[in-house]
Amino acid sequence: MARGSSAHTITVAGRERTFRLYRPAKLSLSAPVPLVVMLHGALGNGRQAETAYGWNAAAEREGFVVAYPDGLHRSWAVSDHCCGRPAHDDVDDVAFIVATVADISAKLSIDPNRTYAAGISNGGMLTYRLACDTTTFAAIGVVAGKLLGPCPSPAPISLIHIHGTADDVVPYDGRPGKLDNGGTGLRPVKIDGGPVADQIDRWRKIARCAAPDARTAGAVTTSAARCPDGRDVELITIADAGHQWPGASPAMVERLLGMDPPSTALAATESIWRFFANHPRNS
């Protein structure tokens, strides 16, 4: 796998699937390195995610590899009713992401105890499914997404979730979003599961976390809970922020995807990477 940005194809369940990979030019692979899998939102793709959210610059600075998988028809299947054609066609996107990690790990020296997943919106929903349905990742980071579908026994991993309180696509308070169609038709979208804060509280209970400590700085409120075995569950809310990746550079493609202007109150990529770096899997 070449240095810099490259495109790759694998076959999963009889379908050709694609992803992009960023390998920093000066990254040494003499020892295993971390991998971050970054999942785009609905209507996006891997190239858009690579361009928009600043992960390549973080990878160059901090020394890790980033994968940017492509959802079929620019969406991810995360439940029976969401989202888009992949949900209608019963695509196994969890299997695709696991296969992507396996393909990269077979060709590069990747540390399985420092393999992470992050995602925005529909990609954040798939990130939750990866924690529910696999043991591949040491920690996950979700922006403007939520957990859909059952998850009685998630993997014992750390979680950071970032959400704007004025998000009208994946509303923080659990109301149906503006794109919700009840989960019907060829492109079903049904985003349920209750308020984000309630979902995080449930995750903490499953993980047997201590009561969270909360602090507020300007528009940003961080609620962090320590859990057994060095894990943490952290919820960051941004007052009056919409459906966006905080700290991203404003771009025409983001507006075309229906995203709100990115909040400047927080740099989500930096916050998530710091969280990942402090939460490898305890082997």
Give a description of the structure.
With 283 residues, the protein is an alpha/beta fold. It has helices at residues 46-52, 55-62, 84-88, 93-107, 122-133, 196-206, 252-256, 268-277, and strands at 4-12, 15-23, 33-39, 65-69, 110-120, 139-143, 158-164, 213-217, 220-226, 232-238. A ten-stranded mixed beta sheet has the order 1-2-4-3-5-6-7-10-9-8, sandwiched between helices.
Lay out the secondary structure.
Elements: E1 4-12, E2 15-23, E3 33-39, H1 46-52, H2 55-62, E4 65-69, H3 84-88, H4 93-107, E5 110-120, H5 122-133, E6 139-143, E7 158-164, H6 196-206, E8 213-217, E9 220-226, E10 232-238, H7 252-256, H8 268-277
Parallel strand pairs: 3-4, 3-5, 5-6, 6-7, 7-10
Antiparallel strand pairs: 1-2, 2-4, 8-9, 9-10
Q: What is the multimeric organization of the chains shown?
A: single chain
Question: What value does the Rg take, in angstroms?
Answer: 17 Å
Helix share, percent: 25-40%
Task: State the secondary-structure class.
Answer: alpha/beta
Order of helices and strands: EEEHHEHHEHEEHEEEHH
Work out the helix count: 8
Bulk shape = globular
Q: Roughly how many Å apart are the termini?
A: 27 Å
The overall strand count is 10
Strand content: 25-35%
The averaged pLDDT comes out at 94
Largest sheet composition: 10 strands, mixed
Strand order of the largest sheet: 1-2-4-3-5-6-7-10-9-8
Which blocks of ≥5 consecutive residues have pLDDT under 50? none
